[in-house]
Amino acid sequence: MNPVIENTVATAPARTTPVRLELKGLLGLALPIMIAQLATTAMGFVDAVMAGRVSPRDLASVALGNSIWIPVYLLMSGVLLATTPKVAQRFGAGQFDEIGPLVRQALWLALCVGLIGSGLLLSAEPILHWMKVDPQLIEPSMGYLHGIAFGFPGMAFYYVLRCYSDGMGRTRPSMVIGLCGLLLNIPLNYTLIYGHFGAPALGGVGCGWASGIVMWFMALSMAGWTFWAPFYARTRVLVRFDRPKWAVIKRLVSIGLPIGIAVFAES
Q: pTM of the full predicted structure?
């Protein structure tokens, strides 16, 4: 056999091994992210299923509320997604001392975006009238959205901390917390929809408040994870307070806003 051909054949498996390892690494990063995103959006599905067991009116009001809050959530998450590449860039360069200040500015952005998102949900009633929604559905739909609006700032904080963790290659925390949030949403729905354990029976409106509580649970859980886990200690994100630096926030918005608009348009 030609020595060149023989050498090529002999070394062929070695060339494919790095590709397999690369794909394995990418899948290890991407799969938890996909599961976390699915768990977050699945809360709306769980709300619709459980509200549908109460009455068609409750089911319709929850479905209508989902059609409003989920696009707003996607817009918000797209804006905050700019945190991930910025953190990854500094993490890859070994600039760990720059990650903390960056994420703290992203948390200020999350506060602004979360409050704006809450305001949009709280003021959605004119949109429902413009859509010529059945008047009997407007009140329960707005009650559902009020509960979601309560949790929106918490969801924004969670998303920034999730992007911070994802940017450093740690995607498992968001998956675990997302699944725990989804599991917590079910008993909270059961309690607030049907009025168990001394809680008022809110019907479909209770789904919104259950989801709002879960959003804050996810934010606090992610904050606790990134604060206590030794891996994050060198970035020191939550150990000090920084005032907002609008130049940094503006750069984050310039990256994230086009992403958010694109995702919002696709929804």
A: 0.86
